[in-house]
Amino acid sequence: MDYYVILSSAPGRRTAAETIVVEEFAHAVDWTTSGLRSAGWAPDAGWRSATSVSRGMRADPRLRARVVPVTRDGADEVHGQLGGGPLPAEPALRSHFRDQQSFPASTPLRLGPAEVPEGFHERRVYRVLFAGDLPVDRLTDLAARWRPTAGHGASDPAPGGRRRVGRDEHSWTLRRVGRDIAWALDLTSLLATTTDHTIGPVLHELTSVVRLRGLVPVTTERFA
């Protein structure tokens, strides 16, 4: 699950938390996004559907400027500060998901060469889209986090990394896309066998790392 705190827009209360939003993406069998479920909590309203808020977090820059991605511990702390006590366990939070935003299924687009390097069975390319912006210091932080395992140099234009999980090899890059209105994490996975069980955990970890730097994940697409 992903957790967010929305700050107050009232004058003089710019840094005060007013709402907690909890989200969970649903995925197809190939790890692409098939849906998004969400719920929100505020002291005066309790738990309720947050479908419209989730859309606004991705489409409305003014709302997104008030959105702070947090860990579950961070959401639990704010929940207590606002008088809600301990944050409910995840199964209880899921009971507040009333609606699901569905994402249309599509055939993977072709991005990059189709050939598979020797020693591997399949090559896949994924793109995780994010809304928002990243200050330079957070980009630097990501580059420092990933570079020790990446083989990238200090002059590389975008943060990226590389990791081998079992016999599978994963490499990724974070860059601006869409005339600088969004960010994309591009992941290339070279699978040694017919199984793809390493892709999901890698996508989840990388998405979480980027999200906690301030961006809001929108969808995961497959390009090959």
Description of the molecule:
This protein is of the alpha+beta class. The chain has six helices and eleven strands. The strands form two sheets. Strands 1, 2, 3, 4, 5 and 6 form a six-stranded antiparallel β-sheet that branches. It is globular, with a radius of gyration of 19 Å. The mean pLDDT is 88.
Biggest sheet character? 6 strands, antiparallel
Coarse morphology: globular
Encode the helix/strand succession as letters: EEEEHHEHHEEHEEEHE
Low-confidence stretches: none
Report mean pLDDT, rounded to a whole number: 88
Summarize this structure as a short list of keywords or feature phrases:
single chain; 224 residues; alpha+beta; six-stranded antiparallel β-sheet; five-stranded antiparallel β-sheet; 6 helices; 11 strands
Topology, element by element:
Elements (H helix, E strand, L loop, with lengths): L1 E6 L9 E11 L5 E10 L3 E4 L1 H9 L1 H4 L2 E4 L1 H10 L8 H5 L5 E3 L19 E10 L4 H11 L13 E6 L2 E10 L4 E10 L7 H13 L4 E7 L2
Antiparallel strand pairs: 1-2, 1-5, 2-3, 3-4, 3-6, 7-10, 7-11, 8-9, 9-10
Question: What's the quick description here?
Answer:
This protein has 224 residues and is of the alpha+beta class. 23% of the residues lie in helices and 36% in strands. Strands 1, 2, 3, 4, 5 and 6 form a 6-stranded antiparallel sheet that branches. Strands 8-9-10-7-11 form a 5-stranded antiparallel sheet.
